[in-house]
């Protein structure tokens, strides 16, 4: 497998997937850039281990989520840690004007969740099966079912407040 | 909203990605890393040349003035001064290689990587060098007073241990730059 070619095509074809994870786990552009850089590096490193046993999207989601969870834990520990690179240089440019307000609201709700629920919500919204979620997150199927039920209920309940404000 | 509606809102973002990748900025990040690597190489050279000339020169002058015949001390001083000269030679060679890198982002990256590799090699070589200097230091000191000899050995051991951490740090910075270069190449391929 040509590592460079695979990396190029993955970043091209699945950038939307990676952006979702970045957006869900970060609150500002600095952090989004930092996390995207880290995910891109992890994706590169993971290519030799990809055996094609799962879909590339599943593989990338797993890497992106694991990296984001590790990154979040580290960021919490070193909240005041300085950037490793010149923060005036941004790899990612956020395009809020292109986004639906309801999507912004949805990301805000996801941001309130803990790390595991965040990951499960992303996977749920992207249509992954319970089995796939269980494998990716290392949680039993039944536990996934309980958590998903709770997440769905939470989001639907919160959306009622959103609807009532007529936004 | 019901969950299906939320999912529809979610799926819409696939049509309009919320970020665009700014490749110029990615280049900027790598260039910053490159400058860091060059700075590290220069600082290391100045420190090693200065320290070796000062220490080596002092040892030679002091023992000459005392009329000492301690061959190990003279050998140690000479090794230090010669090492400083060798580092100056490598520095001039490193600087003369600079024009071979084209004035482009790729050239910058290659230049940064080359200097980072140079620093990694130099820090490893300096560890071996310090072992030689350490042995000469022990022999120059002699074995009349074992307490002092043990203190010298402990100092050498500690310095070598600390230098392994420093070396790992340089290696990490080098790998960091290599990984970023791969990311850059990936972005350019798209």
Indicate the multimeric state: heterodimer
Total count of strands of chain B: 1
Number of helical regions of chain A: 8
Protein chains sharing the most extensive interface:
A-B, 45 and 35 residues
Summarize the structure.
The complex is a heterodimer of chains A (167) and B (190). Chain A is an all-alpha fold and 167 residues long.
Written overview of the protein:
The complex is a heterodimer of chains A (167) and B (190). Chain A has 167 residues and is mainly alpha-helical. Helices cover 69% and strands 2% of the residues of chain A. Chain A contains 8 helices and 1 strand. The longest helix of chain A has 24 residues, at 141-164. By secondary structure, chain B is an all-alpha fold. Chain B has one domain (33-189). In chain B, helix 2 packs antiparallel against helix 3, helix 2 (23-66) runs parallel beside helix 4 (105-141) and helix 2 packs antiparallel against helix 5 (146-189). The model of chain B has no long low-confidence stretch (mean pLDDT 81). Classes of the chains: A mainly alpha (167), B mainly alpha (190). At the A-B interface, helix 1, helix 2, helix 3, strand 1 and helix 5 of A face helix 1, strand 1, helix 2 and helix 5 of B.
Distinctive features:
heterodimer, A: 167 residues, mainly alpha, 2% strand, globular, B: 190 residues, elongated
Helices and strands in order:
The complex is a heterodimer of chains A (167) and B (190).
Chain A: H1 3-13, H2 15-25, H3 29-46, H4 56-77, E1 92-94, H5 101-111, H6 115-125, H7 130-137, H8 141-164
Helix pairs in contact in A: 2-3, 2-4, 2-6, 3-4, 4-6, 6-8, 7-8
Chain B: H1 3-12, E1 19-21, H2 23-66, H3 71-96, H4 105-141, H5 146-189
């Amino acid at each position: 497998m040509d590592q460079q070619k695979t990396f190029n095509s993955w970043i091209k074809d699945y950038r939307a997937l990676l952006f979702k994870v970045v957006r869900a786990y970060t609150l500002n552009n600095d952090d989004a850039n930092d996390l995207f850089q880290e995910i891109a590096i992890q994706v590169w490193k993971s290519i030799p281990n990809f055996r094609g046993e799962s879909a590339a999207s599943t593989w990338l989601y797993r890497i992106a989520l694991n990296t984001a969870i590790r990154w979040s834990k580290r960021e919490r520990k070193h909240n005041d840690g300085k950037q490793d690179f010149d923060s005036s240089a941004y790899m990612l440019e956020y395009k809020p004007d292109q986004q639906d307000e309801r999507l912004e609201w949805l990301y805000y709700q996801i941001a309130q969740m803990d790390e595991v629920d965040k990951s499960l919500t992303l996977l749920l919204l992207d249509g992954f099966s319970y089995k796939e979620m269980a494998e990716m997150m290392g949680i039993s199927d039944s536990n996934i079912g309980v958590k998903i039920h709770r997440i769905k209920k939470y989001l639907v309940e919160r959306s009622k407040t959103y609807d009532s404000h007529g936004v | 909203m019901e969950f299906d509606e939320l999912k529809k809102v979610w799926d819409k973002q696939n049509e309009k990605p919320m970020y665009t990748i700014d490749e110029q900025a990615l280049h900027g990040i790598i260039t910053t890393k490159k400058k860091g690597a060059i700075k590290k190489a220069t600082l290391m050279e100045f420190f090693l040349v200065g320290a070796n000339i000062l220490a080596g020169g002092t040892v030679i002058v002091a023992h000459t003035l005392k009329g000492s015949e301690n061959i190990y001390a003279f050998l140690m001083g000479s090794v230090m001064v010669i090492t400083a000269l060798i580092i100056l030679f490598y520095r001039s060679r490193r600087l003369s290689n600079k024009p071979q890198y084209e004035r482009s982002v790729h050239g910058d990256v290659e230049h940064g990587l080359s200097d980072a590799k140079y620093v990694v090699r130099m820090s490893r070589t300096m560890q071996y060098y310090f072992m030689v200097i350490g042995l000469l230091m022990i022999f120059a000191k002699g074995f009349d007073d074992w307490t002092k000899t043990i203190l010298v050995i402990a100092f050498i051991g500690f310095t070598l241990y600390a230098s392994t951490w420093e070396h790992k740090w340089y290696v990490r910075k080098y790998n960091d730059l290599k990984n970023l270069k791969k990311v850059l190449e990936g972005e350019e391929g798209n």
